[in-house]
Amino acid sequence: MKKFFKVHGFAAVFSLALVLFTLYALLDTFVISRGFAKVKDNDSIVKINEKQEISPVFDRGVPDEPEITESTYYDGNIALEITEYDVNDTAVYVADVAVREPKYLRSAFADNEYGKNISEKTSMISVVHRSVIAVNGDFYGARNSGYVIRNGTLYRDASSGTDDLVIWNDGSLEIVNERDVTAEELVERGAWQVLSFGPALVIDDEVVVGENEEVRESLAKNPRTAIAQIGYCHYLFVVSDGRTRESPGLSLYELATFIKSLGADVAYNLDGGGSSSMVFRGRVINKPTSNGREIEEREVSDIVYAGPPPKG
To answer: In this structure, how many other beta carbons lie within 10 angstroms of the beta carbon of residue 276?
Structure first.
């Protein structure tokens, strides 16, 4: 009898320990917040491409006060216009954004801290950083790999082997694969932002995503977020609705084809689904939803935005 309890008691303790370890692993992965680094900006690396002229949209100079309407903004450093399209019965919001210098195209972390399971709504991060226009980023916090370089600072160098979007310090966009270059090399070459989600949608004016290609186990129709370039310091922020009767969503191929039609040279897919949000001066423009019933923002790890550099 003692032997029975000794054997089975050990099994019970081992099983309990295994359950507790599994529970901790799940909490550590999805719930427990951990800050790894405070935000550091490296604006000194940003430069104006001397081979390019500043967009003529800024020829008007700097007004005494920003010129603002429901869908436009101009302050002499940032100019934008938001247009809503109907694409395959889905509402798509496009912010045509021009910045005077690359330093006005920025990114920000939730709670202004790089870490794990640290998240806030896109609108909240946007307000803190005084952004003019913002979209959700790559949700780096949901993964343990994939390069993270933000505002010129390297935070994570663990490779996931994916195609990344590099925003260089001259404002140009390029798709690179993590198998071909280290994060440290990207920083040395002047990477201003590196976003690791994907896939690439448009490269050299050509759609590069297949008609049936999707993100992991994603459905064919989804809310989407993407960023594209159409000229020097001239970008498109694109967000589509999805998962509702009014807007079923877009496939990656539909998204890529639409963005190419707007004249994009390069376009890249960011985190989508319930994360997809566009915020104009603190106001959510689209209808974000995770389940198709409640219209509500999902908390995310990071945003990409056009706005002023931090004070000081």
So the answer is: 32
Separation between Cα atoms, residue 186 and residue 195, nearest integer Å: 12
Whats the size of the chain, residue-wise?
312
What spatial distance separates the first Cα and last Cα of the chain, rounded to whole Å? 74
C-alpha span between 135 and 87 (Å, rounded): 19
What's residue 102's pLDDT? 96
Does the pLDDT value for residue 7 go beyond 90? no
Helix (H) or strand (E) holding 57: none
Extract the runs of DSSP E, i.e. beta strands, from 232-265: 234-240
Give the integer Cα–Cα distance in Å for 123 and 134: 8
Prior bond of 66 cis (ω within 30°): no
Residue of 109, 120, 215, 123 lying closest to 162 (CA atoms) = 215
Residue among 284, 200, 198, 210 nearest 241 (CA): 284
Residue bearing the bigger pLDDT, 295 or 56: 295
Please determine, for residue 36, whether its predicted confidence score (pLDDT) is greater than 90.
no
Cα distance between residue 97 and residue 306, in whole Å: 8
State pLDDT tens for residues 110-146: 999 999 999 999 999 999 999 999 999 999 999 999 9
> Would you list the domain boundaries of the chain?
33-306
Provide the pLDDT confidence category of residue 49 given band limits of 50, 70 and 90: low
Q: Which amino acid is at 206?
A: E
d(CA 153, CA 166): 13
Q: What is the dihedral of CA 124, 127, 131, 134, to 10 degrees?
A: 20
